[in-house]
Amino acid sequence: MKLTDDVRFVRGIGPKKAELLHKLGIDTLADAVQCYPRGYEDRTAVVPIFELLDGEKFCVHAIVGAQPKTAHIRKGMDVTNCRVYDETGLLSLRFFNNKYAASVLEVGKEYAFYGKVQAEGRQFVMIAPEFEPVQAKEKTGRILPLYPLTAGLHQTDFYKITDAALAALPENYPDFLPEVIRKQQQFPPLGQALHSMHRPRTLEQAQQARKRMTFEELFLLACGMKFLRAGRADKKGAHLRDLSLREFYRVLPFSLTGAQQRAIEACTMDIAEGKPLSRLIQGDVGSGKTMVAAALCYLAAKNGKQAVMMAPTELLARQHMETLQPILHKLGISCGLLVSAMRAKEKREIVDEISSGKLSVIIGTHAVLSEHVQFCDLALAVVDEQHRFGVNQRAALTEKGENVHLLVMSATPIPRTLALLIYGDLDVSIIDELPPGRQKIKTYAVGEQTRPRIDRFIDNQCAAGGQAYVVCPLVEDSEATDTQRHSAEQTAQRLKTVLPHRRIGLVHGRTKTAEKEQIMRDFADGKLDILVSTTVIEVGVNVPNATLMVVENADCFGMSQLHQLRGRVGRGSRQSFCIFYGADKGADARERLRTLVHTGDGFAIAQKDLEMRGAGDFFGTRQHGLPPLKLADLAGDARLLEQAQQAADALMARDPQLKTAPLLRQRIVRLFEQHGEGSFN
């Protein structure tokens, strides 16, 4: 068979199982060889019964001492018990609804049994073991790969297709990992590594192969992101001759932090060099990223060009307008707002002013992406809260002009090593200072027993002129699998009963957009005392008067998400507070909440979150079709990630177009285009 052959032609598979494999993305033998085991079972070591330990899996060779006995214990449940022995002791076997075991196990015959052992008094019981005659040696004495399964497929099915795939591998299977890097890392060739992944002779061999394939995965991603950047290196950015910001700084009613100024300088240096600006501004909620964007919008307008800022919600777009317009107006720069909710006549007028060049700075939502919106001379595109937009939307925005500079802003802190991978096609500036006058948010983790106290505290904050958020993980009670989970609807109703004199609003994902924005606007305008919501307020408006954030069932959220929610308060000069319910939810929850209580550093929190929960959430923040990681654990493989990035840096510095590594180039192009990242030049 050939690697290009369909898996349905593998003996013992057929059309039905092939259909199930297709659903897993395994169409051909080439796909099968890249379906890596999720782990291994070591059946090479045979352990005497005397040395068994509670709670572990073992392989034993033992003789059946008596005929298996089956008992009916309840409807639909039969239990078969069997006693076996070796020269060191006795062991009980227990099977559930397994007529086969009862029928084939022969008294006096020796079998290899493999399964989990548990202690019952002074005896050990092996639960539902796999078994075969010792002379069979089909599974005994081997390192068995364990593949990810789905209903209707078994490990033996994967053994069949991977056996066929390995047999089809050519002796000199093309290896796209450059030889110099392979030797440097002491990795085996690709073909050998694939054989060792699927059919290792030892666990050490499997681990070495897995290390190579994990490195390769991270290396491909790192090279791909750098390749994307290299593809833009020859392009020119929109020409902005005058980059002086003296007048901009003069009209600001406050001084920028050092971090804000450094971010602005990094952007202007990129522009001065003539290359297209392509930079991520990363910083905690409230760190002042918008002022960096305002400075660049000013430069674009000052040079007779246009700038556009796209926000994920109408409310946030209006808030940016309220923040930027007074500053830009003092500088003689026209500023306009474009959102979907506008009346048709008003929208047409704005669109006309954009196309004529009458408006220099445009702030809007997805509405700015409309084909009807034509810019006169767009030079700068700013994408706020970038994780709410896909890469295609971002690209569509920059394509509305020639050589458009791109500024991307994110309030989701990401550890630097991870940011370099996820945003390797962007330069990264970090704003790690908060504006002066901001007080540290006092944070507490509490249990259910404190609820009456917390209710009084909410009331007291409102009585003192503040406002409170109460965030819940669920919309309604019917979604709860745990009676202790608090829904937004139930919480809002309870607070209305407990605090009947308070004005309470409720928003969640099922609230109609117009209604949701009205309620949030009422909260921002001080017409509501308490806003009960789900995480729809995670990216929301700036409410300086909000002094309290209460998060129900904080154990349901990641640390970075909790930090993001906490950042909704503390925007004004008054002392603000954050209270997390969930301190009574176990050791893991306590550790996470303890970190949040003791630090307000979003990047330190993100690093801890990465270590505890892995990188799923971080990759979710960039909805742009990055190739998925099959093997790499970005927390556990941090050292390997660093090595892969260093190797990618060294290679791309020598050969930015990968002319000396054509196989690697082909692999990167195919991988990224397959997953929607776009075309390479």
CATH topology heading of the domain at 246-431: Rossmann fold
How many strand units?
Answer: 21
CATH arch. level architecture of the domain at 246-431: 3-Layer(aba) Sandwich
How would you describe the shape? globular
Please indicate the percent range of residues in DSSP E strands (runs of 2 or more).
15-25%
Top-tier CATH class of the domain at 246-431 = Alpha Beta
Topology of helices and strands:
Layout (H helix, E strand, L loop, with lengths): L13 H10 L5 H5 L5 E4 L14 E8 L4 E6 L2 E10 L2 E8 L2 H6 L5 E11 L2 E11 L9 E4 L8 H14 L10 H7 L4 H9 L4 H31 L12 H6 L6 H15 L5 E6 L5 H14 L3 E5 L3 H17 L4 E4 L5 H13 L4 E4 L13 E6 L7 H8 L6 E6 L5 H7 L4 E5 L10 E5 L4 H13 L3 E5 L16 H11 L5 E4 L5 H12 L5 E4 L12 E6 L7 H8 L10 E5 L5 H12 L3 H12 L2 H5 L17 H17 L7 H13 L7
Parallel strand pairs: 5-7, 9-14, 9-15, 10-12, 10-13, 11-12, 13-14, 16-21, 17-19, 17-20, 18-19, 20-21
Antiparallel strand pairs: 1-8, 2-4, 2-6, 3-4, 4-5, 6-7
Helix pairs in contact: 6-7, 7-22, 7-23, 9-10, 18-20
What's this, in brief?
This protein is α/β, with parallel strands linked by helices. Among the domains are: 45-141, OB fold (Dihydrolipoamide Acetyltransferase, E2P); 246-431, Rossmann fold, CATH 3.40.50.300; 442-599, 3-Layer(aba) Sandwich (Rossmann fold), CATH 3.40.50.
Describe the overall structure:
- The strands form four sheets. This protein has a seven-stranded parallel beta sheet, with helices on both faces. Strands 16-21-20-17-19-18 form a six-stranded parallel beta sheet, with helices on both faces. Strands 2-4-5-7-6 form a five-stranded mixed beta barrel.
- The chain is globular, with a radius of gyration of 31 Å.
- α7 (203-233) crosses α22 (638-654) and α9 (258-272) packs parallel to α10.
- It has 23 helices and 21 strands.
- Among the domains are: 45-141, Beta Barrel (OB fold (Dihydrolipoamide Acetyltransferase, E2P)); 246-431, P-loop containing nucleotide triphosphate hydrolases (Rossmann fold); 442-599, Rossmann fold.
- The model is unreliable at 619-625 (pLDDT under 50).
- With 681 residues, it is an alpha/beta fold.
